[in-house]
Amino acid sequence: MGKLVGFLRESDLFFNLNLTQLEMVENISEEITFQDKDIIFQENSKESEMYLIMHGKVEILVNPGLVAPKAGTIARPEIIAQFGRGQSFGEMALVDEGVRSASARAAAKGTHLIRIPRDKFLLLCKTYPELGFLVMFNLAVDLSHKIRNADLKIREVLLYQSRRGETHGR
Fold first, then answer.
1. Beta bridge partners of 103
2. Number of folded domains that form the chain
């Protein structure tokens, strides 16, 4: 058994995989370490890897100025999420070939990650359909949780803006 299998077994993304399947995922994985404030990937870049956090923290940032820049202002990236041990990020790169929808930045010294490249992952899923189904199902559940969480945050902001409008409208 490899040194990553125990960690992969704890990850929600690889829930219900047997030892052989976990070893196959380990074989396509790469360990990588970042220091505090290191950029892992940039918003709008074309990279296609997914990451799992073994140790440390990762911040997910979006730059609001990329959508509708205001003349004469410099928009700064805003942190929209923070992830820790056992959590994954960058999963959308496994599902589609679009550009990154956000940036990812290490938020702790010695942030240790597992990087899983899209091409190797998809080949593994095609070669072993049962493994592919299990991981893609788990990935769908994980993304669903993240979307629901983002939906709640959007509703909070809208509610705050609505209440602020009522106060200023009087």
1. 61
2. 1
The model carries a pTM of 0.82
Range of the domain at 101: 5-169
Pairing mode, strands 88-89 and 78-83: unpaired
| Integer angstrom CA distances of residue 168 from 29, 160, 161, 162, 163 | 54, 12, 10, 10, 9
Contacts (Cβ under 8 Å, ≥6 apart) of 108: 36, 56, 57
Q: Can you give the CATH number for the domain in which 99 is found? A: 2.60.120.10
CA neighbor of 138 nearest in space, from 58, 59, 50: 50
DSSP 3-state of 168: helix
* Burial grade of 23 (CB within 10 A; 0-12, 13-18, 19 or more): middle
Measured between alpha carbons, how far apart are the two ends of the chain, in Å? 67
Question: What mean pLDDT, rounded, does the chain reach?
Answer: 88
pLDDT range class, residue 67, cuts 50, 70, 90 = low
CA distance 89 to 97: 15
